[in-house]
Structures are given as C-alpha cells and as structure tokens.
Design goal:
about 400 residues; alpha/beta; Rossmann fold; Hypothetical protein af1432; 3 domains; five-stranded parallel β-sheet
Length: about 400
C-alpha cells in the first residue's frame, strides 16, 4: 500500500504534539511531518513532496489562508485542509477559494483520519497527474452572470426569504456546489450530511449567503474562451432539467432531494475542461458532433478521462457528501459502482441518458439496463421513458 505524505501546520508546539499523539496509530500508513508556522511549512514542501497539507487558520505573519494560497499556486495537486478553532465568517470566506476541506477543533482522530483518507482515495479517480494538477488549480467554477445577479438582487431585498434564495441557488451547478461544500463542512456541525440545496441555504442563513453571493472572489465568473457547441447557460438548463426529471422518477420519495442535489452538480467537470483546455475541448465537442457520439466517449479517447471523473474529483476535494461525488463519478458508467444505495444513481443515470439521447438525437444505448435491473428499478423504465419524452416535448419538468 502506498504511504501517504501528510504535512500538519500550526503555530503552537503543543497543538502539533497533540496531533502527533492523536494520530500515533496512523504511523504505519502515513508519513507525517509537523511544521511550526507557515514559513517552516513552505520549507518542508520545497524539500519533499506531500499529498495533503492540514493547517491552522490563524497564525502570525502568514495565516492559513495565505499559506494555502501559496500551496495552491506552487503545488496544485496537493490536497488542502483547514483545521481551525476559529469559525468566524471572514475566516470562512477567505479560506473558501483555497481550502478543499474544513475541520474545526477539537477534532477526533477518526474524523481527521477519515477526511484525509477520503481526500487521498479520490486521487485514484484520476490516474493522470496532469489532470489532478488541472483540477487542483480550480478555485471557482464560472457561473452564468444572470444567476449571479439574480441572487444578488434578491438578497438585497429586506423581505427576501431563505426559501426564495434556495430556489435561485439550486438553479446553478456552481453555486449549488459551493453552498453544499460549506454546509457540509464541520464548521456548521450538522448532525447529518446535507444534500438538498434548499436545506443547505437554511443552514447558511441569509447573512452568510449574502456574503457568498456578493463576493466575486468566490462566485465571480472566470474568463472563458468561447467554445462552439458549449454554453454555460445551456449546460445549466440541461442540469436543471435532468435534476427535475430524476426527482420525478423517484415519485417525491425521501431520496428525491438527494437525487436533485446530485443531479444539479453532476456536470461540473465539463466546466473545468472548457475553462482549462478550451482548444482541445473544442476539438472534442466538434468530433462528438461530427460522429454523432456522446461527448464523454470522445473525452475518454482523447484525454484518458471524462468530465464525470474530473467533476467527481473536484466535488470530492471540495468536501461534498460522498453520494454526490459517486453520482458524478459513475453517472455514465453506473455498473462500476461497487456498493451502496442504488436508487439515486439509477434514477439520475436514467434521466441523464434519456435527456441526452432526446436532446442530441443519439441512440439511448448509453442507458445501462443491466444496472437498472440490479437496482431493482428496471420495471420503472417504461414510465421513465414516457416522462422523459413528455418533458422533452413540452420543456416543462
């Protein structure tokens, strides 16, 4: 088993000693280094490669956010975790663009171990280090300006309700992902993972949501090279349509909100590829159209990975719930999903495949019938086909 290289950073020796004692059982699996302050941490990073950096937030001279910004710039493939006892709003907002995970002190050995292990396990999704580096450099996903301004205008109204803001946020994959990332961090101390965007907005509260909405540093649209056949607005509409359809597939069951949350962020990997590889992604989209093939199949041939894997890696290191990460990872290949609840993935996979086939006149051979049978939902397929056909015809989910 490959050993993990973890760097812990704090400005207090007793905290570092406490971490050494807390994680003594991990010495057989991890190579751990402990740096007293940000300067010492940068020296350690220059001397040897690390997989994960775990840092305190408030430190003299250079604080945790500044340190992680430098780590992101110099070593983008390194996972970045904040472990801090300070959860004030300004600190959270400053850390958002540079931290993949947020943990609060005191933190149990099991929570810290599982968080680091989870971050590490996601590396297996992307075999190509260049792709991991590409994703590591992303600190924000571009959001369509119309959605940003809609949320900003609504938040400025004195009588706006959280339910109103939740309806706006869940329209957009980028904002949905960031809101879910923050709410599922340990700063909010939620007793269970939150996969519903409206529920996440309720946890955040109006004031913090305004901070996030107004902060162009978090949600501002990055500059994109125009790509023929790719539109953020169209991608957003397709994501919303798939999310609404998948929720209807589950008949408003307890899993309906979960499938909606997973669906709305499932294609964020396409944004990463479009932003970071515009010329190459243009060629991929053109080749898919010329051959009447699904884009993800051409991605796999040309890049060695698909937007599903790229998106899953990004959502995972952001700290979204595991079922959302898995849905993003396996939505084109659900039979690769080894264990766990199957209903959400089955409903989402079917909705995505049927919409894709209907929108792009592809044969729906991408629909994994064997997986639907394994999930015990093959009998639902005729109803799902009828719903999808109706939605595509009317445009109303």
């Amino acid at each position: 088993m490959e050993r993990k290289h973890i760097l812990f950073v704090d400005d207090e020796r007793n905290i570092l000693q406490g971490l050494q004692d807390l994680l003594r059982k991990q010495r057989k699996q991890w190579d751990m280094s402990f740096a007293l302050g940000a300067g010492a941490a940068l020296e350690e990073l220059a001397r040897a490669p690390f997989d994960v950096v775990v840092t305190d937030m408030r430190m003299p001279g250079m604080d945790g956010a500044e340190l992680l910004a430098q780590v992101k710039e110099r070593y983008p493939s390194v996972a970045r975790i904040v472990l801090s006892g300070h959860a004030d709003r300004d600190a959270i907002v400053r850390a958002l663009p540079v931290a993949h995970q947020y943990l609060s002190k005191p933190c149990s050995a099991e929570t810290l171990r599982s968080t680091i292990e989870r971050v590490w396990s996601l590396h297996a999704l992307l075999a190509d280090p260049r792709t991991r580096e590409l994703v590591g450099k992303m600190d924000k996903i571009p959001s369509p300006p119309a959605i940003y301004w809609e949320l900003t205008r609504a938040a400025a109204k004195p009588d706006v309700g959280l339910a109103d803001l939740g309806k706006i946020v869940e329209k957009d994959p980028a904002m949905s992902a960031k809101v879910l990332q923050l709410v599922n961090s340990s700063y909010f101390g939620t007793a269970q993972t939150v996969t519903s965007v409206p529920r996440a907005v309720t946890y955040l509260g109006l004031e913090l949501l305004k901070v996030l909405a107004i902060s162009a540093h978090v949600f501002g649209a990055v500059k994109m090279t125009p790509i023929e056949g790719f539109s953020l607005d169209e991608m957003q509409k397709d994501s919303l349509l798939v999310a609404q359809l998948a929720r209807r597939f589950l008949n408003n069951s307890k899993k309906a909100d979960d499938v909606f949350g997973a669906s709305i962020v499932h294609d964020v990997g396409r944004i990463v590829l479009a932003v970071d590889l515009p010329e190459r992604y243009q060629q991929i989209i053109r080749a898919a159209a010329d051959r009447n093939r699904a884009v993800h199949l051409v991605e796999a041939e040309e890049l060695g990975v698909t937007h599903a894997e790229v998106g899953a890696y990004l959502l995972g290191i952001w700290g979204l719930p595991l079922n959302l990460v898995e849905t993003a990872a396996f939505h084109h290949a659900p039979s690769r999903f080894s264990e766990g609840p199957l209903e959400v993935l089955a409903a989402f996979h079917a909705a995505d495949a049927l919409v894709d086939a209907g929108r792009h006149t592809l044969v729906d051979a991408a629909l994994d019938v064997a997986f639907l049978e394994r999930a015990g939902m093959l009998g639902e397929l005729p109803r799902w086909r009828a719903l999808a056909a109706d939605v595509l015809r009317t445009g109303n989910a």
